[in-house]
Design a protein that fits this description.
alpha/beta; six-stranded mixed sheet; two-stranded antiparallel ribbon; 10 strands
Length: 321
């Protein structure tokens, strides 16, 4: 019988409601084939006391900081006020709990401005970390010893993980599920959350792109059509023809809806498909390359190493251990 991975969500005063609910939502949907939960998520606060959220409600926890002493992962959601945001300090009891969890090997994570708490506890000194781009200047002022990168969605620095704001917390949690249990489980969790299954951690977190006007046109049907043909050579003119648009109009709509060019999007989809094939099939690298639309193993290796950071064979060994 699978023993669920224990997650403690440490909520502090002024906790962001969405950030607080994200771990339970994402990790709660991660299950085995027979629907056995893979994670057990519980909330704790200092002293087990109620804390205020930014959404107008109070959090009534069932646990105090002792929960962090047995958790496999400790997650700190974002906050929008309080000492960590004002002067860069945190309750000594919180510091002690986080440091003790880290020292015994627990995974430590923050969502959005929860990074201010980890930094105040001294867990980010000398590490790369991220937080919401809008708070980058304040973070640097309070914590100059942290190597802050506000341009990415999330970072994993040797077992201490930080994410940008709002939806990036979901991306980070899905990233953890994927690393723990593979793409098949993570993709199903994403589907249950009605979320894209993969946004790379290095993707820019702040893309200033106006919301497109509703013109009655969309490239969503064409994107699904292309996903079913990743093994075939699909050109931009083929996509535009399927959408019944000119190449110029299609490209404009496509970038407005996805934030990517059609070529970038296709490469992302093919890479994701290759990941899934490497994890879930016994196809050779040459066969994976053909099924995912790369044509040759050399092309797959080059793209895979650039986008994922490892060779396809090493990736397969990691996720099929």
């Amino acid at each position: 019988m699978t023993v669920p991975h224990r997650i403690a969500v440490l909520a502090l005063d002024h906790v962001v409601g969405l950030d607080l609910g994200t771990p339970a939502q994402v990790f709660g949907t991660a299950r085995t084939a027979d629907l056995t939960p893979l994670y057990a998520v519980e909330v704790c606060t200092p002293g087990g006391r109620p804390v205020r959220s930014t959404a107008g409600f109070q959090v009534l926890p069932e646990h105090g900081l002792e929960l962090t002493g047995t958790a496999d992962t400790v997650i700190v959601p974002g906050i929008h006020d309080g000492p960590p945001m004002v002067d860069g300090t945190v309750d000594p009891a919180v510091t002690a709990a986080l440091r003790a969890a880290h020292d015994r090997g627990a995974r430590i994570m923050s969502i959005c401005t929860g990074a201010f708490v980890l930094a105040a506890a001294g867990l980010l000194d000398g590490r790369r970390a991220t937080t919401h781009w809008a708070y980058a200047d304040r973070f640097r002022r309070l914590h100059p010893a942290v190597d802050l990168d506000p341009d990415v969605l999330f970072l994993d620095s040797d077992g201490v993980l930080t994410s940008a704001g709002v939806a990036a917390g979901i991306d980070l949690c899905l990233h953890v599920v994927r690393n723990d249990h593979g793409s098949a489980v993570a993709n199903l969790s994403a589907r249950r959350c009605v979320m894209p299954p993969w946004r790379d951690g290095g993707q820019a977190q702040y893309i200033e792109r106006p919301v497109p006007r509703d013109t009655g046109t969309s490239t969503s049907t064409t994107r699904e059509w292309a996903r079913q043909r990743l093994h075939e050579p699909v050109a931009l003119r083929d996509l535009a023809a399927h959408a019944r648009m000119s190449v110029r109009t299609f490209t404009r709509h496509f970038r407005s809806e996805t934030g990517l060019s059609p070529a970038q999007w296709l490469l992302q989809q093919r890479t994701d498909h290759a990941r899934q094939l490497l994890e879930t099939t016994d196809l050779t690298i040459d066969q994976v390359a053909r099924h995912a639309g790369f044509g040759t193993a050399a092309a797959l290796r080059q793209t895979f190493h650039h986008r994922v950071g490892v060779a396809p064979t090493a990736y397969r060994h990691t996720f099929r251990r």
